[in-house]
Every structure is written in C-alpha cells, then in structure tokens.
C-alpha cells in the first residue's frame, strides 16, 4: 500500500502518541501505587506490633484459635481496610476470619516478613496475599513469642479485599469518569491539532510532488505544465521548489538544444551527402566515358577528363578531412600543443601558398607591416590552418583587381590581433553570426569551379576556441569583409 508523506507522518504520530500516552499512564499509575503503598505501609507499620503487645490472647502465647478468629473478625469490622492472619514459624496459615473459600493459600513466604522485621525502612515491601495466589500486598507484621520461644507471626494485610472492592466502586463514580473523559478529550484535541499542523506543513510538499509528477508525465515539457511560483522564503520547501524549477528549466533548455542540434545534424548530413554525391557522380561519369572502348577520345579530351576527375577527388578528400576535423573538434578529441614561434614567418609561409592563386585571379595579397616580427605562444599547426582557411575564403570572394591584406596589430603588452581583410563582395548583416555554423553558406558564396562544404569557418572558430581565442567579423555588402582574432604575445623575460 502506497502512503503519502502526510499519511506516513500522521500514522507515525498516532502510534508514537498512543505509545507515549500508555507509557505515561502506566508510569503515573505505578508511581501513584508505589507512593500510596509507601505512605500506607509506613502509617500502619507498627499496627501488628501494637496488637501483639495489647491483646491478652497474643501476650500469653496460649492460643485459643476460635477466640483469635473472633478477635480478627471484630478488628476487621472496626477496620475494613485490614485482614488479619496468624501464621506459624514455617509460614503455614493457622487462623483467620473469612468466609469459606475466600482464602486461597495455606502457606505464605516468610522472607518479606523477616526483612521488614529487621529493617523498617524497606517500605514499600510486598508480601503474599492469602486470598489471591497471584497477587502481593503491603502488610504489617510482628513476631509472637511465648517465653522467648517464637510461636508465629501476626500478619496484617493493609488494604484488604473489602477495601479494594470499595475503592473500585468509588473509582467507578460518575465524577471520576467525567474527569477521565475530559482528560481523553484534551489528549484527542492535542492529537487532532498536531495532525492539522502536519497537514499544513506537508501540503506544499504534496503540491510540489503532484506538479513534478504532471511534468514527468508530459516528458518534462514545460509548455503546458509549470511549477507554481515559489517565494524567496528561507524554508526548505520553497528552496526545494526553486531548485526543482531551475532543474526543470535547465532540462527543458537541454531538450530544446538537443532537438535543435539533431535538426542541424540532419541538415548537415543532407548537405554533406549532396556535396559528396556531386563530385562522386562527376568522377564516376568521367571514368565511365574513359573506360568505354568504343569511344574515340582525343588526347586533349582524355587529359581534360582526367584533370576534372582529379580535381573532384581532391575536393572529396578535402571535404572528408574537414568532416573528420569538425567531428574531432565537437567531440573534444583534439588537443592543443603550444609553442613559441615567430608569427610573421608563419603568415608569410601561408601567403606564399596562395600567391599563385591570387595572381591567377588578379588579386593583390600583402602583409602589413612588411617587417612582421612578433613572437607568440600558440599551436602553430592549428594557427596555420586558420590563416590558410581565411586567406582561401578571401581569394574566392574577392573579384579581379581587389586586394587582400593580412595585418598584425598590437593591442597591448600581452595581446596581438590578426586581421584578414578583403575588398570582396561582403556579407549581409543578418548572416554574420550564421556563417560560423557548420555547412552554412552565405548568399554571396562563390563556388565556381569548386564544390565547397561550408565547414571552413566553423573549423576556424573551433580551432581558435581551443587556443582561448575568439574570431570576429565585420563586413559591408559590396565593400568587403574583415576577420579578426587575438593571440597571446610572448613577453620578454
């Protein structure tokens, strides 16, 4: 059976409350009984001794048991709270005054009697009740001698059967019951008040659990389900509510991010499959033409087909390398190996690789300042990849007669900025952020003669992030673009 938190707390409270009430009641009754017996036994402690000293039958040590029984009967009429017994030195009950069948014992244990005779401070001390084999009662006792010879003991039960019967009748009186009912009512009121308080304190937790269950049933979607607003109180429930709200909001954001990422990956796969299919289809077509024996191709045509097929293979190789490089960046498998080197030498090496391509297109490519002597700390291989990608993009988007400038500027004593600017077609303002997404191609993309995968800028951004650098872009449509990133400068010792 599944119980709510309130039901568990309420059940536990009722059980503990009943146990405590029973414990307190039993303890109080025991304390009351012990105190009552202590007082009564001390009050009548010398009763038996006085009877032995004052009564001629007991003083002479000559026992007329019938006369002694009559004496006990008279004394019990005068003191109904007492029962009188005469026992021999072995504990056998010799005489008493009681109706036939009332006395159930014929022997009693003398140990408590002897202990009380030796030490009167042991009260309350209990002896056997001759009328009930399973019960013990307080008593008064005195030894009876005849010329220094022990004849037996006068054994007086304090609070006899008649006394107990009368006392129980009094306890059954209406006033006692009314007092008991008032006490029970007070305890019941306290229990109900505590249950209401528990209900009040656990209601927010129950409400929070219900709302979380509804959100869980909705697959943690916060579109149609929201947690109630929780105040800035410093109690545990409000703090828990705020924490759960923050956690659910974070989960919802992650779900949306995963959905968006999945959508982007699907789009990326679609684009990549198209990019891979186009050069593959071209290579396959040319190879089929070259492999047909009945086709009579001139040497010039054959070389053209082979050249185009080779270009497509190179493009395929470049695209696949970019795909693996981007995947390694996203998975965090790429590591940075920093070293100190001259930035100017690296830039001139990169520029030298593209001089022929720039001259063939009629684009001017230069470095500023010409004497570029700066020492930096970075990963030289990854930085070369970034600069090469940016220069290659600039050449493809800059028309004949344009110019590309690779400029190094010192921002402060610790940072350098590398700017690669061109006078090309530029980029629309609403596309400046999106161009760094994988496989995004701006509307001004120039893919004449090359099938571009749209991964170059995404790779540049990822590589620079590994080196704790950030790439920025400024562009104006029809006037050109400028890509900038920072590098830590090597300070002189």
From TrEMBL:
EC number per UniProt: 2.7.13.3
Ranges for domain Histidine kinase come to 271-491
According to the UniProt entry, its GO molecular function terms are: kinase activity
Listed PROSITE patterns:
HAMP, HIS_KIN
The protein's UniProt keywords, in alphabetical order, are:
Kinase, Membrane, Phosphoprotein, Transferase, Transmembrane, Transmembrane helix, Two-component regulatory system
Q: What is its main location?
A: membrane
UniProt KW Metal-binding keyword: no
Matching InterPro entries, A to Z? HAMP_dom, HATPase_C_sf, HATPase_dom, His_kinase_dom, HisK_dim/P_dom, HisK_dim/P_sf, Sensor_HK_Regulatory, Sig_transdc_His_kin-like_C
Answer yes or no on keyword Membrane.
Answer: yes
Matching SUPFAM superfamilies: ATPase domain of HSP90 chaperone/DNA topoisomerase II/histidine kinase, Homodimeric domain of signal transducing histidine kinase
Indicate where this protein resides in the cell. Membrane
Q: Where does the sequence pass through the membrane? A: 6-27, 176-201
PANTHER family of this UniProt entry?
HISTIDINE KINASE 1, TWO-COMPONENT HISTIDINE KINASE
Please give the catalytic activity noted in the UniProt record.
ATP + protein L-histidine = ADP + protein N-phospho-L-histidine
Q: Which Gene3D superfamilies match?
A: 1.10.287.130, 6.10.340.10, Histidine kinase-like ATPase, C-terminal domain
One of its Pfam families is HATPase_c
- Where would I find the HAMP domain in this sequence? 199-256
The name of this protein is histidine kinase
